[in-house]
Amino acid sequence: MPKSMPPRLVLASASPARRKILQAAGIDPDVLVSGVDESLVVTDRAEELCLELARLKAQAVLTRLRPADDQRTLVIGCDSVLAFDGEILGKPDDAADATRRWELMRGRSGVLHSGHCLIDVEAGRRAEAVASTVVHFADVSDEEVAAYVGTGEPLAVAGAFTIDGLGGPFVERIEGDPSTVIGLSLPVLRRLLAELDLRITDLWTKVAPGNQTVQPLG
């Protein structure tokens, strides 16, 4: 049966920030959490780690999907880590770990790597890429670190910081794509879709800001 609906994108992530950035770009993904044990991948290369975890997440969700006959289905797996001072930093272990990291990171910079694995379910094709962005941290005070860690936000994110939440004021600037730091690079997603013979506009399904309806172009 020919496909009659916009492609379905399944996000293999529990991250509300990743879902939000897709929705802001006109894409309303389904969400299916992978449940992958991230400790299974051991490597000292940040780019390799985030890409392998992105693959595992996408593959784990792929095995649980039932594609619709009239809709092309895609799965996107993502993972982010911060490379800082010779360490690979995912989510902090606890508040003490988050505090330790911020005491080291403040006034310095690191590189946030986000791995992406996009799978076309029916065709069995995939496209992958890692996006990297340099993050320059503000020289925050002990009091600011304590207050930020006390919110709990840095415990839930790679590198113990955000740029789209409470941690935004503590990042002086970045060099690269902001959406990479949030955890899913929209420019990378566009390029990966092109490798699978799709345009990002094919996935538009939402009402855009200003209440104008977004119509798929294909």
From TrEMBL:
Provide the cofactor list for this protein: a divalent metal cation
Compartments where found = Cytoplasm
User: What Gene3D superfamilies does UniProt report for this protein, alphabetically?
Assistant: 3.90.950.10
Main localization of the protein described in the UniProt heading:
cytoplasm
Enzyme class of the recorded protein, top EC level: hydrolase
Can you state which reaction this protein catalyses? a 2'-deoxyribonucleoside 5'-triphosphate + H2O = a 2'-deoxyribonucleoside 5'-phosphate + diphosphate + H(+); a ribonucleoside 5'-triphosphate + H2O = a ribonucleoside 5'-phosphate + diphosphate + H(+)
Q: Taxonomically, which superkingdom?
A: Bacteria
Question: Which residues does the Swiss-Prot or TrEMBL record annotate as the active site?
Answer: 79 (proton acceptor)
Matching InterPro entries: ITPase-like_fam, Maf-like
Q: Which CDD domains match?
A: Maf
Q: Which UniProt keywords apply?
A: Cytoplasm, Hydrolase, Nucleotide metabolism
User: What's the EC number here?
Assistant: 3.6.1.9
Q: What does this protein do?
A: Nucleoside triphosphate pyrophosphatase. May have a dual role in cell division arrest and in preventing the incorporation of modified nucleotides into cellular nucleic acids.
NCBIfam families in alphabetical order: maf (TIGR00172)
**PANTHER family for this protein:** BIFUNCTIONAL DTTP/UTP PYROPHOSPHATASE/METHYLTRANSFERASE PROTEIN-RELATED, BIFUNCTIONAL DTTP_UTP PYROPHOSPHATASE_METHYLTRANSFERASE PROTEIN-RELATED
Q: Which family does it belong to?
A: Belongs to the Maf family.
UniProt-recorded name of the protein: Nucleoside triphosphate pyrophosphatase
Q: What is the lineage of its organism?
A: Bacteria, Bacillati, Actinomycetota, Actinomycetes, Micromonosporales
